[in-house]
């Protein structure tokens, strides 16, 4: 399950950086990379969203800071 956590974390970081670029410069990096394939672009956004949901639901069990008593 560690690999799922790593992939989810990376996708959430990519999504967060992409939102930062959109907010600061109106530049969508995902569209820039895969915009010629709309289905792939949609898949990236779905995977980022699912990754965020996964991390939200499993955070307390995975996080060393949050699991301390």
Report on the structure:
It is built from three helices and no strands. It has helices at 2-25, 29-34, 38-62. Helix 1 crosses helix 3 (38-62). The two termini are 24 Å apart.
Secondary structure: elements and pairs:
Layout lengths: L1 H24 L3 H6 L3 H25 L7
Helix pairs in contact: 1-3
Feature tags:
69 residues, mainly alpha, single chain
What would a concise description of this structure say?
The chain has 69 residues and is mostly helical.
Strand runs, count: 0
* Structural class by secondary-structure content: mainly alpha
Task: Tally the helices.
Answer: 3
- Specify Rg, calculated over alpha carbons: 14 Å
The overall pLDDT, averaged over residues, is: 92
The biggest beta sheet, please?
none
